[in-house]
Amino acid sequence: MTRSLYPARLVAVLAAAAVVLSPAIGTAQSGSLNVGIDQAQRVQLRGPAGSVIVGNPAIADVTVVDANTLYITGKGYGVTEIVAVDTIGRTVFQSQVIVTDGAGSGRVRVWRGGQATEMACAASCSPTQRSSDTAPTP
């Protein structure tokens, strides 16, 4: 009676595929991400995150919804980096975050001498809750 080698070959093929694909599981999403000031952007991770690191919390903040979903909020104008790692330290997300005013967003900055006031504008303009001492210099 002949024994089939099919199960042994299948196991070998699956093992080889696991070795080839395992680096892809730990591969980080990267690139830059533009977020408007006081706006949030959803980021879906390719794998579960164990920790999230924000380079400069004055520029961006992260809310962790679950192990695979983050919301990045623009807190102040500038550029920072956000990194998410899994429970064994592999990077699952790494991105430069650029926080801008979101052109055409209905915001105006009024300068009176060295004092800046941010205004939110629709049918009329009103000062925003952002304090004037955090406004960037021109």
What report would you give on this structure?
The chain is α+β, with helices and mostly antiparallel strands and 138 residues long. The chain has one helix spanning 6-26, and strands spanning 32-36, 40-44, 51-54, 60-66, 69-74, 78-85, 91-100, 107-112, 115-121, 125-127. The strands form 3 sheets. A 4-stranded mixed sheet has the order 1-7-6-3, with no helix packed on it. The chain has a 3-stranded antiparallel sheet with strand order 2-5-4, with no helix packed on it. Strands 8-9-10 form a 3-stranded antiparallel sheet, with no helix packed on it. The radius of gyration is 23 Å and the shape is elongated. The termini are far apart.
Short description:
This protein is 15% helix and 44% strand. The chain is an alpha+beta fold. Strands 1-7-6-3 form a 4-stranded mixed sheet, with no helix packed on it. Strands 2-5-4 form a 3-stranded antiparallel sheet, with no helix packed on it.
